[in-house]
Structure prediction request, 271 residues.
Amino acid sequence: MDQLILAVEECDFVNNPVCAPEDVGELFIFEPIFGQVNRTVILMFLAAAIVIAVLYFGLRKPRPIPTKFQAAVESLVSFVRNEIAIGIIGPEGIKYFPYLLSVFTLLLVGNLFEVTPLINFPITSRMALPAFLAILTWVIFVVVGFAKNGIGYFTGVVWPHSVPLGMRPLVGLIEFFSTFLVRPFSLAVRLFANMVAGHVMLSLLLVTGWIFTSNLFINFGEIGLKGLAGPLWFVFGLGIFVFELLVGFIQAYIFTLLSAVYIQTSVHPEH
Prediction:
């Protein structure tokens, strides 16, 4: 957020009210602090540490009458176990529950960094993390598919018996590309694109609103009536701020849900 403020402070509000940095990468790329470690890497470790701490302190000593914190953590864990792991994959889903819980909680914390004061940067707006988790999900469901069904997993994809014979070559080709190539790409891009869009929109609205509003009282003669748009942008940005809380949860849920669906198609390819 500090870099965004520095970028817009140098704008010419009179002749060019819509200001953009020379390098759009400034919105997401931070200078390394030491070596190859930058702010994004530190936030990834921080998100992992928060997940570990929440699960550890929330579940280490369960009480017959749970505290609010314990109840919240248990509800989160039960939701992923019952509604996603077992609910989507079936009884065998309990094997994949630790992975799905890890993915959901890490993405949830990473997404909510967008609306966390003094951070205001979702780590999932960097393609590396969604891509890594998508590839990991891809490896899991492909390995599980071949381990449980042998070569029949592959032939079932490229030669689906549930469609008419004349359409099998075309449908099989589509299913091959969809299953082995498109799934990891779409899984990563869906999360990445939504978080980037929300981050850019929220940052630009709040920072633009703040700059215009502050200069409305300081340099009204230079800005003129354009400065009146500042409070409106700022209020609209606060509305988007609340909306992004919901988006952060939904995107974590969708990524985890689709991961479970893909694993389910390998465990039970006949479905």
User: Anything to note?
Assistant: DSSP finds nine helices and no strands in the chain.
